[in-house]
Design goal:
seven-stranded mixed beta sheet, TIM Barrel, single chain, two-stranded antiparallel ribbon, alpha/beta
Amino acid sequence: MRLDVNRREFLKIAAGAGAALAMPTSGHTAVSSKMIGIQVGAVSFVDEGTEKVLDVLQERACVNTLFLAVFTYGRGIAGRQIPGQPLPDHGKQEYDLNFHGGNFAIPHPQYYKNTVLKDTRAPDHGDLDILAEVLPAAKKRGMKVICWLEDVFRTDLPNIEKVQERDLYGRNAETLCVNNPDYRNFLTGLVEDYARSYDIDGIMWGSERQGALSDGLGATHDVPPIDPGNVTCFCGFCQSKAKERGINVERARQGFLQLEKFVRSARSGKRPVDGYYVQFWRLLLRYPELAAWEMLWTDSLRETYAAIYRTVKAAEQTVPVGWHIWHNNSFNPIYRAEQDLHELSNYSDFIKIVMYNNCGGERMALYADNIGSTLYGDLSKQSLIDLNYALMGFKERS
């Protein structure tokens, strides 16, 4: 596989589509020169059979690329239907109530010597190695297999507390810190393992998270909205990195404590004298460290992207590496600003920008509810939606 997409072409592709449609060409014969991909978890192959699943994907959707969920503890991409939601018209008609998750391939211990995260093998499907199962069958059909890794973990894993983020009050969060060497080493070990151990056609990692400022404002579609006292990360690694960047850690902490007060008051319906938007800007001007801490988190994520990219290229130069960009990119202009494609192109071969249709409207409404109770509390919901459509360039209604 040769990498023949230059930086200008990459930016053009990424800006105009949800995924890089002109993936680097492969020595394997593809059904189409255009990527037609689908995310799929191991459970689909277990429930319905590998050949049957591939038949359906090719015959009904002309799929030529599998984004195979090989590592996640989240049922969203690796489990059956979410319990309580309608079951699909195929596969087992039951929920996987005992879903566990983890590494659905076989971890090779030599790649995990420099991390405290050791035992990540998914127990869900016994001894099944989903890559060993799917790769040969897919390649016979000229289909590519891209390893799809998600930044979602359980809280009951051995040593997980050593790599978790710390919130504003120093409490362990459920998420892991990308500035923690043990987590960074785990990620680089994981992708090196896949690149060296399997004949894969790519690696895609996704982290559906953002910095403390956006989280503190509730700038997501989460239900309930994120608690402003639980924003991250304020661990020792992040504080040391902040100091290296010239950020006053104590002023940043005080700024987020004031932001917490602002958000709690706003959500209780107490309108500031000058309004919510003006009061937020008053706070941000007083504590510019709020924005600096947000960018600290974003830059740390980018450094993680770069570390993953370098590791894969050192292991197998021909394996493309790319990123899953969270659906919040469709709603939150702050998060959108942080997804700088020009910057990302330095360590990306492709990007899959999430653009949903079926849940897009509902999630936009939830985002409006959340941000409309803090930053944009002065606006009616319709005015907020209209403003956001204008800010985000959504012109379908015109």
